Amino acid sequence: MPEPVFLSGDCVALRPIEEDDLEFLQQHVNDPRVWRAIGRSKPLNRVQERAFFEDVVCSEESIQLLIVAESTPVGTVGLKSIDWPSNRAELGYWIAPDHWRSGYASDAVERVVAYAFDQLGLHRIAARVFAFNEPSRRLLESVGFTQEGVHRDVEFIDGEYQDAYWYGLLEDEWRSETD
């Protein structure tokens, strides 16, 4: 039986991540095309993936959702480092490589951003993207995010230091885009 949908998009459904999803998560987060884009450089075993589930997915400072297309898990999207007093959070997402260029990430990000501003009352959402990840930069810009700065040589990935571009989106900017 499929898990209940939390948010529905045009081409995806977003639902809570459950323990049964850990195998899917571990498999794809260990794919070099995914771990490179999210800035991980070490593999995750089952114990570590379970710790992620317990420490991050089940945390009050995080909302992590599974992206599902036609009953198939295709990635994750979420808000982490939620600072409730300041009404801000950081957006993160990834899509399994077999499902790239399908519109799933855009749909999921748009839904989570709307949820963050409309339901959670957040004022600001930040996102970090590595310089080599041009598709993700374009996605954020298409939703209304503005590049705010660069952290130079912030992560060591594939044998070299990588710059990370920081993006931000304020609630009033997003509302003016959606009106």
Automatic annotation (TrEMBL):
Per UniProt, the keywords (alphabetical) are: Transferase
Q: Does the keyword Transferase apply?
A: yes
Domain named N-acetyltransferase: which ranges? 12-172
Q: Identify the PROSITE patterns for this entry.
A: GNAT
Q: Where are the transmembrane segments?
A: none
Entry GO MF terms: protein N-terminal-serine acetyltransferase activity; protein-N-terminal-alanine acetyltransferase activity
The organism's superkingdom is given as Archaea
Q: Which InterPro entries match?
A: Acyl_CoA_acyltransferase, GNAT_dom, Ribosomal_N-acetyltransferase
Q: Can you list the GO cellular component terms from the UniProt entry?
A: cytoplasm
- Its name, as the record gives it, is N-acetyltransferase GCN5
The organism named in the record is Natronorubrum bangense JCM 10635
